[in-house]
Design a protein that fits this description.
Layout (H helix, E strand, L loop, with lengths): L1 H37 L9 H7 L3 H8 L3 H25 L3 H13 L3 H9 L4 H11 L5 H19 L3 H32 L6 H56 L12 H12 L1
Length: 282
């Protein structure tokens, strides 16, 4: 009798396991069929909160980050504008100094200063302006030519470094604004705790902490590329200053070496020759 009861119970258990396995496989097959029927829009029946979290954009971040997100956004817009303007200016001002000086040397050796002035005046950039200022006074003594080139280069430096200070300021200001937003968010969080008598839920604290994290991240996102842009533009400016110095030294050598040697052939009057020699000696 006992053996028959045990046999019946085992048979019933096996049948129940088979039924549960069949139901589970049927459920999986129905789920697969539903996914295939609904296609890519299967997740359309997600809760509204989950769908909203997928659709958060820049405006939502700005609103949730508080008022300090707007100054950080203004910093990013200004830095983009300054970088684009400086990049365009430096691109136009950059020339091949070696090729330009090689072409001028041929004109200066032939004493064709009018053509050399025309070429330097028609070439954009600070290097060409420095060379142009020296060619205008090509009859001046060597020391005076050096002073002319140095003064012309000093006048070009502010034009090259224009707005670079703005980029440096924005690179330091953006993370400070993010830090200020962090402090403001933590003040809101602790203010919530104080207003609720020392007890607050995670939901009540999350808004202030979320604001602090958003402002910190936004400040770093703006500051990092701004500092990279400032470093890149500074390197371009230093390269152009080096080109100006090189061009100034070489044009002084060209102008002084191209002068006719007195005592061999001179088409000037004796008074003019004596004056030119006196200027050269001084």
């Amino acid at each position: 009798m006992a053996n028959s009861l045990v046999a019946h119970s085992l048979a019933a258990q096996v049948r129940s396991e088979k039924n549960s396995a069949g139901a589970l496989s049927t459920g999986f097959s129905r789920l697969k069929r539903a996914k295939s029927e609904q296609g890519p829009g299967f997740h359309d029946d997600l809760p509204p909160q989950a769908k909203r979290s997928r659709e958060i954009g820049v405006i939502d971040y700005l609103q949730k980050g508080g008022l300090l997100m707007w100054p950080i956004l203004a910093c990013s817009i200004i830095s983009i504008g300054v970088f684009a303007e400086r990049l365009f200016y430096l691109h136009r001002a950059t020339i091949h100094v070696g090729e330009f000086l090689k072409g001028l040397s041929n004109l200066i050796r032939r004493r064709n200063f009018a053509e050399a002035l025309h070429e330097s005046a028609g070439t954009p950039g600070p290097v060409a302006r420095v060379i142009h200022s020296a060619i205008i006074r090509h009859d001046a003594p060597r020391s005076e030519l050096r002073d002319i080139v140095q003064e012309a280069g000093q006048l070009e430096v502010p034009k090259l470094e224009r707005f670079l200070g703005v980029l440096a300021t924005l690179a330091f200001l953006a993370p400070l604004l993010g830090l200020l937003g962090t402090v403001a968010g933590m003040i809101d969080a602790f203010g919530t705790i104080a207003s609720s008598g020392g007890y607050a839920t995670v939901t009540e604290l999350s808004s202030g902490i979320y604001k602090s994290l958003l402002t910190t991240a936004a400040g770093l996102v703006v500051a990092t590329p701004t500092f990279v842009a400032y470093s890149y533009l500074s390197s371009r400016v230093n390269t152009m200053l080096h080109d100006m110095e090189r061009a100034g030294i070489e044009i002084v050598h060209m102008l002084t070496e191209s002068r006719p040697i007195s005592g061999i052939i001179s088409f000037q009057r004796p008074e003019e020759t004596a004056q030119s020699e006196a200027r050269t000696d001084s």
